[in-house]
Design brief:
Helix content of chain B: 40-55%
Structural class of chain B: alpha/beta
Number of strands of chain A: 20
Helix content of chain A: 25-40%
Largest sheet of chain A: 9 strands, mixed
Distance between the termini of chain A: 22 Å
Strand content of chain B: 15-25%
Order of helices and strands of chain B: EHHHHHEHEEEHEHEHE
Distance between the termini of chain B: 31 Å
Oligomer: heterodimer
Shape of chain B: globular
Radius of gyration of chain A: 23 Å
Largest sheet of chain B: 6 strands, parallel
Chain lengths: 531, 222
């Protein structure tokens, strides 16, 4: 018997409603299609503050936080950036709660040399109002901007080399953190690929270290990103993280949230369409019609103006590896749904948001990151779709970019991708030159743009998906050239896409529809002899 | 190898061409001479304002005509005070970083400015050594005539001089960068493969957005 979150459509099933960017579209899927829904949100902790205090006083694999403190010591608190959770969390963000409790403890032990660094790595710098939302007014007013600031990996004076792995990968980290007596990392672990050794060794590093593992080859060897034990990316990060943890005194505080992404007005988006009440179904149909007619900024506002009412499901502190083991268990408990066998065709809606476009438009490169990167990788065990299978996505693929955040992406999509989509070619011929582009570096350092190497990393993010999938068909594209640049076919509707997925032949297809957001991951069990 | 071509006034420094000129006018050999020079300059002000709207080259020629009769010694002597007292303090803090990032990328650093050579040379030295494409005063008997030697570095002429510099030094313009704050430098920005609008005026900001040129302000940031 299959899991309650995996349902099979019959002739009486309602149409499914999928995201297509910031629109919602009705999709008719044939009877027999399996639809994978997110699990219901895990029960949140009743007293989050008490859980934080308990976690730092009873940590995994190390002494309690208070035992590490002494007057006059230098402490750096590093904190995950705005890329998690998605969308940003309703106030108070769990990071605010952790930081406030940690700061109170530090004050009790007469520790006043404290700086809080937002571990942005090569992500864009967070804006003041975003930081305020994340850490709360009290911390913001006391620390911003001198003692609460964004990491700047392109300032050579602010970086320090701490070592090298046996493979020759350079571990270069934020100097303030390296020179601190204690680094307290405050994480928000949205998905299993977050956290652990990645927090310090990626969050506080720069291009020189990232280039060790953000390569087309490494990305091809991840099966999947969401299963650290089967991810070469996680393996290399772990090696580098161990070097970092030898040099730095790190105390990790990880937190997990449930998948209550939509608040009350939009809660029904996470449900099975056949289980909706007639009122909810009418509301959903109304939303489909409204998003079809409203202008883009209004559509974006519908989804962005409602912060997610995530509930905190766990706080785990102590030694990086030991604490993260607990975090992963809780993450998997929320997201993993068992599935028997792989599909021939995977159908998924691409939503309006990704980790890299908070408060910005999901540009074409990020569409590909979501499709062949994140959605393809939402599995443990084996991919949701068979080797050579088809991914059908719904998205307009609009040729639109946020000029402030995604300036380097524009050149990447319009100048480099038309030359080649080959990750190795892009890596070899263009990446380093692009990464040293002084204009883009200035926009990264002084503005709010992503690092010029970031679009390359984003393209590599889809490498495993590109190698595995036979084709990607996009439904509802508002132009032909962006899908062509990305290497996608186009279809007017899902029926046409399914017809093209079977190359016009009259054969049965095993179709799986990934109904997200909220996040769901398939734990795929292959039949005996399957590959 | 590529080159990075930088406009200076308004791009790397917040001061402009008028600031050093005013300093020279106010620091003549005698107060009476200063008064005479300032008076003449004020008479030319309406014409300069009009020229600034229409043609940057004419503006430069009118502006530098104020130098007529100044001795070479005095020009060089006061240049130190102007650079140390006016220009270097008005350098955007991030300007040196930007120049250094270009140098780190292996670019030849070229300052392309309407400024005068003896002033710009000191700025170039401060920035760690740069090639200069700039204006030069015509001198007769160690005295400025108030005319500029050809070519006058302004507007479209900057683009021609950049092309010439790139050709002579083996740079592929497609790989080169240009940075400017002003709409009047559109020709200079358009001639390279990687233009960027730095502290752009309103018209340049609009155009940069339309063409997806990187845009940033050196006064912003950490």
């Amino acid at each position: 018997m299959s899991h309650p979150c995996l349902i099979t459509l019959d002739n009486n099933s309602r149409p499914r409603v999928l995201f297509a960017g910031d629109r919602l579209v009705e999709v008719d899927l044939p009877a027999g299609t399996r639809v994978l829904y997110p699990k219901p949100p895990l029960e949140p902790l009743k007293d989050v503050d008490a859980a934080i205090r308990h976690a730092i006083a009873h940590p995994y694999g190390t002494e309690p936080l208070y035992a590490k403190l002494f007057p006059g010591m230098k402490v750096t608190i590093a904190v995950d950036d705005i890329s998690v959770p998605l969308p940003p969390m309703r106030k108070p963000d769990v990071r605010q709660r952790v930081i406030e409790i940690v700061l109170a403890l530090l004050a009790d032990y007469a520790v006043d040399d404290i700086e809080i660094i937002i571990a942005t790595s090569v992500h864009r710098r967070m804006k003041a109002h975003e930081v305020r939302h994340m850490v709360g007014d009290k911390v913001f007013n006391a620390y911003w901007p001198k003692r609460l600031y964004n990491h700047d990996p392109e300032n050579p004076a602010a970086m320090a080399k701490v070592g090298e792995t046996e493979e020759g990968h350079v571990v270069e980290l934020n100097r303030r953190a390296v020179e601190s007596d204690l680094v307290i990392y405050v994480n928000l672990n949205l998905v299993p690929m977050d956290g652990g050794y990645k927090s310090v060794s990626v969050g506080l590093c720069g291009y020189n270290s990232l280039r060790a593992h953000h390569t087309p080859q490494v990305m091809r060897n991840c099966h999947s990103y969401m299963d650290p034990k089967s991810s070469e990316l996680a393996t290399i990060v772990e090696r580098m993280g161990k070097i970092a943890n030898q040099a730095l005194n790190v105390f990790t505080i990880e937190t997990t949230v449930n998948n209550r992404m939509f608040g009350r007005p939009l809660e029904f988006l996470a449900k099975n369409e056949d289980d909706l009440t007639s009122t909810e179904w009418s509301l959903l149909k109304g939303l489909v019609k409204a998003t079809a007619k409203l202008p883009q900024p209004a559509r974006q506002a519908i989804f962005e103006r409602v912060p997610a009412p995530y509930g905190v499901t766990g706080v785990f502190a102590g030694d990086t590896e030991a604490a993260h083991e607990q975090t992963l268990k809780r993450c998997n408990e929320q997201y993993l749904v068992p599935i028997e066998g792989q599909a021939d065709v995977l159908v998924a809606g691409i939503p309006y948001i990704s980790p890299y476009n908070v408060n910005a438009f999901l540009n074409p490169l990020l569409v590909s990151v979501m499709a062949q990167g994140y959605l393809f990788n939402m599995y443990k065990g084996a991919p949701l779709v068979k080797k050579g299978g088809t991914l059908i996505i719904t998205h307009p693929c609009t040729d639109k970019f946020d000029h402030e955040q995604h300036a380097p992406y524009i050149d990447f999509v319009h100048q480099l991708l038309p030359e080649t989509r080959d990750g190795y070619e892009l890596h070899k011929r263009y990446e380093e030159k692009f990464a040293r582009n002084p204009a883009f570096l200035e926009m990264f350092r002084k503005g709010h743009a992503y690092h010029p190497a970031h679009p390359f990393f984003m393209w590599y993010w889809g490498e495993a998906g590109r190698q595995h999938l036979g084709k990607v068909i996009v439904v509802g594209a508002d132009n032909e050239y962006i899908p062509k640049i990305l290497g996608y076919e186009t279809a007017r509707n899902v029926s046409e896409a399914l017809y093209r997925a079977r190359d016009g032949e009259n054969r049965t297809q095993d179709i799986l529809c990934l109904h997200l957001p909220p996040i769901v991951m398939g734990e795929v069990r292959l039949p005996r002899g399957g590959a | 190898m590529a080159a990075s071509y930088f406009d200076v006034d308004g791009t790397l420094v917040s001061s402009n061409l008028v600031d050093p000129t005013v300093y020279y006018l106010l620091n003549q050999a005698t107060p009476l001479a200063s008064l005479r020079k300032v008076g003449k300059a004020l008479l030319r002000a309406p014409a300069m304002a009009l020229a600034e709207l229409v043609d940057r080259r004419t503006f430069n020629e009118l502006l530098f005509s104020a130098y007529e009769g100044m001795s070479e010694d005095r020009l060089h002597l006061l240049a130190d005070e102007i650079v140390d007292g006016k220009i270097i303090p008005s350098l955007y803090p991030a300007a040196r970083d930007l120049v250094q990032k270009s140098r780190d990328a292996g670019h030849e650093i070229v300052l392309v400015s309407g400024s005068l050579d003896f002033i710009l040379a000191k700025v170039a030295h401060y920035l760690g050594g740069c090639t200069m494409i700039c204006n030069r005063l015509e001198m007769r008997k160690q005295t400025a005539t108030g005319k500029l030697l050809k070519p006058v570095v302004a507007g479209p002429e900057k683009a021609r001089l950049i092309r010439e510099h790139a050709r002579q030094n083996g740079h592929d313009l497609n790989d080169c960068y240009a940075f400017s704050d002003s709409y009047s430098d559109i020709p200079m920005l358009s001639v390279v493969g990687h233009p960027a609008a730095v502290n752009p005026d309103a018209r340049l900001a609009l155009l940069a957005r339309a063409y997806d040129w990187p845009t940033f302000r050196l006064s912003e940031g950490p």
